């Protein structure tokens, strides 16, 4: 069995990450490391998770999730990481790659990007009272009928 | 100052589990960056441990679980809101560890496909025993063997696998020795220079005088030397690798003797086989890793036993255990040839020895290896 790993050509050049993020990863993809895991209550589809804030110097980004503020930093990875996307026959249109028929295999990986740096949030979250922009999404779930949906993202922090 | 919204994708779980992270060793990263490498594949049977093959190298893929989570962020697609979307959260990365290619499987697959002298008339053979033997082509092997293309091609060459009518057929060792001896004598009888012999003349001579098929002798020549790629076939020159031929002939003689034979006798037979012209190339060094040498009680000459490393187990633990069963202690120089084919390099070999053997240095400064207390496991 041979599973090909394709070097995806820049598929949709118009949809690029904001420059602050592209500077950390690539135009297509960026990695954020969280010490802990995201917990979501309710339907998460399309919901806002939080907000990344970049100060002018770019070096101390912060992340607000629910009532928590995380301070992060940009770290060089010990070894570059290739971000691969698994493409199966059941997910058509992931990439209109003509070589797909040639390979004769229904599973393959595309290299989305090769990332040399990551954004890491490893410090203990700081509780905050309110951040207006995020609270609407978070409170929406509690009030029930809000148009912004009913999901609630929070961070489960682990030491 | 910039704020960037993070969102979940519009469709639930549309991409969860689809992303994975692969840690790139520096040398692989370098070739990926300068664009010389664009042929990465994951290879193996469903039950194998997966390996990643570049066009030249093979890596074992090892999964490492992380306590932290990596969020994969990309730009939104279509209807999705926000500036970035969390596509996946990953708690595992794949590490790549350089590995020797797993070419040994070729032997197993092609075990019953050997090409021998008596079977040259392939059509008869086919009529007599239809469907008796499974047939394998190059692409069959490529699917099954966990090795990069370069390593696979080299492996097929080293294992002396012929391509006969599109099928892979390993040449039988005795037949190979015959063809090589004939090539050497024909080189001399036609007074051709070993550096630039006419390949066509040689193949003609072998076909007419010894009934050796042209395509067979051509392939054998390509294994033991270089065939120049000329536009006109008749002008094709063969630069013979005399040392490799002499070595192979020596191996053939050694292999034919299941009983130990004295070193002098072996060298004499060997010299006779390669002829006067190439006699000087004969040396026991060519056969390292294929024989055991014991001092003989009756004569001054050492007794040589055929003991090929290719027949030993592949896992380091088992191989060293086997070696120490054969001999309870080994000189460092003696054991090294028997580990060469399973170690990536000398450093890797020394690591194996350190792990599975005990070393002692005697008064004369010779390093000896012995089994590490009890059973090596």
Automatic annotation (TrEMBL), chain A:
Record keyword Nucleotide-binding present: no
Q: Which UniProt keywords apply?
A: Cell cycle, DNA replication, DNA-binding, Nucleus
Domain of life the protein comes from? Eukaryota
Gene Ontology biological-process annotations: DNA replication; mitotic sister chromatid cohesion
Cite the GO molecular-function annotations of the record: DNA binding
- Give the record's GO CC terms: Ctf18 RFC-like complex
Q: Does the keyword DNA-binding apply?
A: yes
Region described as Disordered: 88-107, 132-159
Q: Where in the cell is it found?
A: Nucleus
Q: Which PANTHER family match?
A: CHROMOSOME TRANSMISSION FIDELITY FACTOR 8, CTF8, CHROMOSOME TRANSMISSION FIDELITY FACTOR 8 HOMOLOG (S. CEREVISIAE)
**Entry similarity comment:** Belongs to the CTF8 family.
Put simply, this protein is called Chromosome transmission fidelity protein 8
UniProtKB/TrEMBL annotation, chain B:
Name any one Pfam family assigned in the record. Answer: Dcc1
Q: Which UniProt keywords apply?
A: DNA replication
Q: Does the keyword Lyase apply?
A: no
Q: Name one GO cellular component term.
A: chromosome, centromeric region
Q: Does the keyword Cell membrane apply?
A: no
User: What GO terms in the biological process aspect are recorded for it?
Assistant: DNA replication; maintenance of mitotic sister chromatid cohesion
Kindly give the InterPro entries that the UniProt entry links to this protein. Dcc1
Q: Belongs to which family?
A: Belongs to the DCC1 family.
PANTHER family linked to this entry: SISTER CHROMATID COHESION PROTEIN DCC1, SISTER CHROMATID COHESION PROTEIN DCC1-RELATED
Q: Return the protein name.
A: Sister chromatid cohesion protein Dcc1
């Amino acid at each position: 069995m041979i599973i090909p790993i394709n070097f995806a050509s820049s598929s949709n050049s118009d949809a690029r990450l904001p420059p602050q993020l592209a500077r950390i990863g690539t135009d297509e993809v960026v990695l954020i490391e969280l010490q802990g895991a995201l917990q979501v209550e309710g339907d998460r589809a399309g919901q806002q998770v939080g907000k990344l804030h970049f100060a002018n110097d770019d070096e101390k980004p912060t992340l607000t999730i629910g009532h928590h503020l995380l301070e992060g930093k940009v770290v060089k990875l010990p070894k570059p990481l290739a971000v691969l996307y698994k493409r199966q026959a059941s997910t058509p249109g992931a990439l209109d790659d003509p070589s797909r028929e040639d390979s004769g295999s229904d599973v393959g990986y595309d290299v989305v990007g090769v990332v040399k740096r990551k954004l890491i949030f490893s410090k203990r979250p700081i509780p905050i009272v309110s951040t207006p922009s995020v609270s609407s999404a978070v409170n929406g779930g509690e009030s029930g009928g809000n148009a912004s949906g009913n999901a609630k993202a929070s961070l489960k922090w682990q030491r | 100052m910039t704020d960037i919204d993070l969102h979940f994708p519009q469709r639930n779980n549309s991409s969860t589990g689809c992303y994975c992270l692969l840690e790139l060793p520096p040398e692989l990263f370098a070739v990926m960056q300068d664009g010389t490498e664009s042929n990465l594949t994951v290879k193996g049977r469903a039950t194998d441990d997966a390996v990643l093959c570049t066009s030249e190298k093979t890596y074992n893929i090892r999964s490492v679980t992380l306590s932290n989570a990596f969020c994969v962020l990309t730009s939104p697609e279509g209807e999705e809101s926000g500036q970035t979307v969390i596509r996946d959260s990953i708690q595992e990365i794949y590490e790549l560890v350089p590995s020797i290619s797993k070419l040994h499987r070729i032997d197993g697959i092609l075990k019953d496909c050997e090409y021998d002298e008596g079977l040259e008339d392939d059509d008869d053979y086919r009529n007599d025993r239809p469907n008796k033997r499974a047939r394998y082509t190059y692409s069959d092997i490529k699917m099954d063997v966990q090795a990069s293309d370069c390593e696979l091609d080299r492996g097929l060459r080293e294992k002396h696998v012929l391509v006969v009518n599109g099928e892979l057929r390993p040449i039988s060792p005795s037949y190979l020795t015959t063809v090589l001896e004939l090539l050497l004598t024909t080189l001399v009888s036609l007074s051709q220079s070993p550096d630039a012999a006419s390949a066509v003349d040689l193949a003609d001579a072998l076909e007419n005088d010894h009934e050796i098929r042209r395509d067979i002798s051509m392939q054998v020549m390509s294994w033991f030397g270089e065939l120049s790629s000329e536009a006109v076939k008749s002008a094709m020159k063969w630069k013979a690798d005399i040392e490799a031929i002499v070595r192979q002939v020596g191996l053939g003689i050694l292999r034919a003797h299941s009983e130990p034979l004295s070193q002098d006798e072996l060298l004499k037979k060997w010299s006779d086989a390669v002829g006067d012209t190439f006699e000087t190339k004969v040396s026991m060094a060519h056969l390292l890793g294929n024989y055991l040498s014991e001092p003989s009680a009756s004569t001054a000459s050492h007794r040589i036993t055929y003991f090929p490393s290719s027949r030993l187990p592949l896992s380091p633990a088992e191989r060293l255990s086997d070696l120490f069963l054969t001999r309870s202690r080994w000189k460092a120089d003696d054991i090294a040839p028997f580990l060469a084919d399973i170690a990536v390099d000398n450093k890797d070999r020394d690591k194996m020895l350190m792990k599975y053997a005990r070393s002692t240095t005697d008064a004369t400064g010779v390093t000896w290896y012995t089994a590490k207390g009890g059973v090596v496991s």
